[in-house]
Amino acid sequence: MYKQTVRRRRAVLALLVALSLLLLTAYFGESSGGGLHSLQRGALSVLAPVQEGASRALKPFRDFAGWFGDTLDARGERDKLRSERNRLRREVIGAETARRENQQLRRLVALDNSGSLEGFEPVTARVIGRSPTVWYATINVDKGTGDGLRVDQPAVSGDGLVGKVTAVTRGAAQITLITDHTSGVSAKVVTPVLTAQGNGITGLVQTAVGNPQDLRLDFIPRRARLREGDRIVTAGSRSDKLESLFPPGIPIGVVTRADEEELSQFQRVHIRAYADLRKLDFVQILVPGSGADSSDRAQTP
Amino acid sequence: MSDSAQLLLRLALLALATVIVQFAGVSQVQVFGVSADLAPLVVASVGLLLGAVPGAIMGFGMGLLVDTVLLQTLGVSSLILLSLGYGAGRLRELRDPASALTPIAVGAAASALAAIGFSLMQFLLGVDAPVSLLLIREILLYVLVNAIIALPVYGLVRRALQPLLPDDPRRRRRRAYVTGGLSPLSRS
Questions:
Q1: CATH topology for B3-187?
Q2: Pairing verdict, β A242-244 and A120-130
Q3: Residue ranges of the domains in chain B?
Q4: Which distant-in-sequence residues (6+ apart) come within 8 Å of A193 by Cβ?
Q5: Do A24 and B20 touch (CB under 8 A)?
Q6: Looking at the partner chain, which of A65, A209, A278 has a beta carbon nearest the beta carbon of B131?
Q7: Cα-flanking dihedrals φ and ψ of residue A258, to 5°?
Q8: Helix/strand/coil (H, E, C) string of chain B?
Q9: How close B94 gets to chain A, by Cα (Å)?
Q10: Alpha-carbon distance A50 to A121, whole Å?
Q11: How far is residue B108's CA from residue B145's CA, in Å, rounded to a whole number?
Q12: Which of B29, B70, B136 sits opposite A62 (nearest CB)?
């Protein structure tokens, strides 16, 4: 009797381990349109309404728990924001002058003065789920193909870039945040002083696994002179052959640490994202307007 | 409905409820910069309460559900969680721990093993990005947060499975002592 129980227990364990390994191998081997991927998307679309209901029901509890942390952070945040406000006030005055000059110059060379998000129709979506592991920074939202969402479309919040759509079903979509280790966004530097040397320098915004709050701007020129407070925006590109996933000019973050040694050795500075990616309730997905058609173009991050 | 069918149904509902509450609520609340993870705690609690086989089955099912909802590689979480469920179940079968603090220790160990196992799997599957040493700090904080909520989670799981549970170790020992099973008087 005892031997039979032991045998049964070991058989169940072996069966489950084999099943897991089989699933892992099959999933890894198939394309994103394969059977297991489709099954996964089907299950997600079934669970999405339940998740949405639960997300709404649990919002008061989330807010209550978040309130404690927010209260502790609020004091330091207030002082930081005050000094940032003073700095921005000075910059606005300089920027206003530059804007007027810019408009005049644009008129002179007859350039297109359109905004970076022109041609997109933002779709507002509610965040209904979030990955708990440090390895994946993903969120699920309650909009899907029915609302015009497609894979690789950029997602933004009121503060800046959030990520891009990586999977989509009829009524739900998964957004991989810029703090995910698989994410990479081509970006450029916008310095507060337009004549500064760092202005227009491009690089790649990435994150390191284990430290999602600290984004990095990698692959910048060794001699670039960047300073704390320099802004980072999406570089974008509207070339016909290699169009960027992200339109140009979306704010990403601000340089928090520009160490000369690190800059010369690793071509890297550290940045903090404008969007608070830990507390997202709503995001906007930038769906190309009806006039735009970029399906036949190659795309880069 | 037979007892095993009832148990399976309860385990399935428990797994579904855990995954929904996790992703819709718990994951979006950060304590010390990390989120708690109910999955390893619930699986370890089921193992502790029911034994190795139900623990492993619960781990496999819960892992499948987690990977499905997060659109992750299927099988990764299943493999890790089924090992945790089986391990917690074997602990119950071999040691039969009766201390009230057992769920905290087992919850912390399960969380640590889940985090390390998940990291190892990611390394095996290939990571393109740099890995910061702060990952260790994140794992330690995650284990701490999970250890804090391990006891209430264990209590909730026990309540959810109450009618179908075998005897609690402490109650079983008390009854055995009273009825003479473990009494030194009965041996003399």
A1: Arp2/3 complex 21 kDa subunit ARPC3 (1.10.1760)
A2: unpaired
A3: 3-187
A4: A94, A199
A5: no
A6: A209
A7: -125, 85
A8: CCHHHHHHHHHHHHHHHHHHHHHHCHHHCCECCECCCHHHHHHHHHHHHHCHHHHHHHHHHHHHHHHHHCCCCCCHHHHHHHHHHHHHHHHHHHHCCCCCCHHHHHHHHHHHHHHHHHHHHHHHHCCCCCECCHHHHHHHHHHHHHHHHHHHHHHHHHHHHHHHCCCCHHHHHHHHHHCCCCCHHHHC
A9: 13
A10: 27
A11: 9
A12: B29
Q: How far away is chain A from the Cα of B92, in angstroms, using its nearest Cα?
A: 14
pLDDT (tens digit per residue) in B5-24: 888 899 999 999 999 999 88
Residue range B70-96, pLDDT digits in tens: 888 899 999 999 999 999 999 998 988
pLDDT tens digits for B31-42?
Answer: 877 889 999 999
Poorest-confidence range of A27-31, A245-249, B184-188? B184-188
- Residue range B105-154, pLDDT digits in tens: 999 999 999 999 988 888 888 776 667 777 888 889 999 999 999 999 99
- Nearest CB neighbour to B129, from listed A17, A57, A208: A208
Q: How far is A57 from chain B (nearest CA, A)?
A: 9
Q: Which residue of A has its CA nearest to B123?
A: A135
Site from A13, A58, A278 to mutate, B interface, most B CB atoms within 10 angstroms:
A13
